[in-house]
Amino acid sequence: MHFLESLVVLLAASAFVVFLLGRFRIPSIVGFLIAGIIVGPYGLRLISDIQNVELLAEIGVVLLMFTIGLEFSIKKLLSLKKAVFRGGSVQIILTTFVVAFFSKTFMSYNMNQAIFNGFLVSLSSTAIIMKMLMDRAEINAPHGRISVGILLFQDLCVVPFVLLVPILADHGGSAQEIVLTMAKALAVLGAVFIASMWAVPHMLHSVVSSRSRELFVITIILLCIGTAFLTSKLGLSLALGAFLAGVIISESEYSLQAISDILPFKESFTGIFFVSIGMLMDLGFFAENLLMILLVVVLIMFVKTLTVFAASLAAGRPPRVSVMSGLYLNQIGEFSFVLALAGKSAGLMSEPVYQVFISASVLTMLLTPFIVKAAPAFSGWMISRPLLKRLESIKTSTLNVEFPPSKSDHVIIVGFGINGSNLAKVLKNSDISYVILEMNPTTVRKFREKGEPIYYGDGTSVEILHKMGIHSAKVLVIAISDAAATRRTLQIAKHENPNLYAVVRTKYMAEVEDLLSLGADEVIPEEFETSIEIFSIVLNRYHVPVNLISKHAANIRMNSYGMFRAVEAPSSDTFDHRKFLKSIQTSTYYVSNESFAAGKSIKQLALRSATGATILSIQRGSEIINNPEPDTVIKPQDIMLLMGEKEHLDEAVCYLG
């Protein structure tokens, strides 16, 4: 009962704080952390039992790991392989090395503790960054893709990190025990592979065949808790088991249904975990050691920004994207808390060090939303520094033999995704000169071999735009997913060539006014183009005249989608197309040899004057005669398409005999 009371307090406090901070557009995760600090044993003591707090943290991380495992895709991992394996490995190794070196040299930790500190700092927050990337529509932006890739590799590294904790604590340091631990891990991974390939899909197929949603959800939860329990019995972590359970289900054909049933609760799972983390922060210790904790925060964020920056460069990303990635991933991750609890239990961390880590980690998480917001402006300032300019020129020289020769009245396409590639095809077929600017080096190499005038470079660089002939270009088309880079590229381009006609693709309607104010001549928001397509289909199903649908679309596009405008359609007093169309019907009539119509022309038949029905067309064998002339003779075996009100059609059938 006491545990239930703690859970009620936790949920009530987090709901209130998240609602309050939501008014200031502060992410919910920050609210969860603050709520935990307030209600925890070091705050208002609304929840004072530390065992309950740790239990909530463990439940929270198990559920969180499971939902992340559900979204984990082997295909996604392979599509980002360079970002994941090259960028991620460089980041983990660099961060661990720098932190371990600093800990041993300046803080007198032994080597094992120093390496463990490196593990803790090397992980970033998947939950926070993934949510912010999705909220900001940056998941497919260059810095979003590299950030996701590095985060995926970090999540993979949690497994060996957890396995290495007892070894670093000298609780499993013998060669035999190390081999045994690694054998356990390989056995678990082998079991996961077998389960994902055969056992789980077969079991889920049987469950789905029962057509019971309740049974399906219960089975999914059983797989989560059961796998976590099994791995804990094998000496591994509960969190690892929950993650592996999610991966197993994600690889089955029923993964989408599992995700749709479980993910609505993800925010609750995430909330429980982060509230419990906030409750672990000792406010008294924080106040007494404020300067030291702030220094640790600065050091952590500085080191991680630099190491992620280096990792992003190693993965082939340009300096501006690398700076943004470094700023996005410079906080401590949620799995670091899992490691910290394991390390504390194993004797790798003392209680004071643990509290310094908790306090510093919570602060880095609290600061993340504000750093992310400032990242575009800061990265723009950073790439104007001489050192980063030099890095950009070195990288560009490795991917371009030469920039395009002087052109005039050409089109500059920034971004070679679906929109950019389609535009390039049309321009090529129309014999219009164009050049393409793209920041994905793989794409550049691939399409240069196919003869495309594509060049590697960042549109936010004045020098790059000069080399693309910005002063003599006629049209600039910006079709990239990075909103900040879009604004910066547009601003620079219009400054360099005020006569340039700039067409910009954006994701959301809210960005239109800002882009117009920066000089865009046309802004195409995907959000509204989708809405136009939807309402056109819907209106067409209700038989709204095509010209009125087109007028609706034209009015919305007018003034760059400035507002919905009412279409001046015929008034309901003079014309109601819905009522009109409901009253009009069509029917077919087969002309037999005995029919009154056989052998007569349409004029002689006088069907309209006699019955009110009209002959729209005549099918004669494989021939279709649309809008037949009055002198068209109707022959036996013809099929006539008639139009009119129901009573008119009934009269026509009787008339024709």
Descriptive account of the structure:
It is a single chain. This protein is 66% helix and 7% strand. The protein is α/β, with parallel strands linked by helices and 657 residues long. The strands form two sheets. A six-stranded parallel beta sheet has the order 3-2-1-4-5-6, with helices on both faces. Helix 24 (512-517) links the parallel strand 5 and strand 6. Helix 3 runs antiparallel to helix 13 (266-279) and helix 5 (81-106) packs antiparallel against helix 15 (290-314). The protein is globular and about 110 Å long.
Task: Name the descriptors.
six-stranded parallel sheet; 66% helix; 657 residues; 3 domains; alpha/beta; four-stranded antiparallel sheet; Alpha-Beta Plaits; Na+/H+ antiporter like fold; 30 helices; Rossmann fold
Topology (elements, then pairings):
Blueprint: H1 2-22, H2 28-39, H3 50-71, H4 74-79, H5 81-106, H6 111-122, H7 126-135, H8 142-168, H9 175-209, H10 213-233, H11 238-250, H12 255-262, H13 266-279, H14 283-288, H15 290-314, H16 319-328, H17 334-346, H18 351-382, H19 386-399, E1 411-414, H20 418-429, E2 434-438, H21 441-449, E3 454-456, H22 462-467, E4 475-478, H23 483-496, E5 501-506, H24 512-517, E6 522-525, H25 526-541, H26 546-561, H27 577-583, E7 585-590, H28 602-605, H29 607-611, E8 614-620, E9 623-626, E10 639-644, H30 646-656
Parallel strand pairs: 1-2, 1-4, 2-3, 4-5, 5-6
Antiparallel strand pairs: 7-10, 8-9, 8-10
Helix pairs in contact: 1-2, 2-13, 3-11, 3-13, 5-6, 5-8, 5-15, 6-8, 6-17, 7-8, 8-16, 8-17, 9-10, 9-11, 10-11, 15-16, 15-18, 16-18, 17-18, 25-26
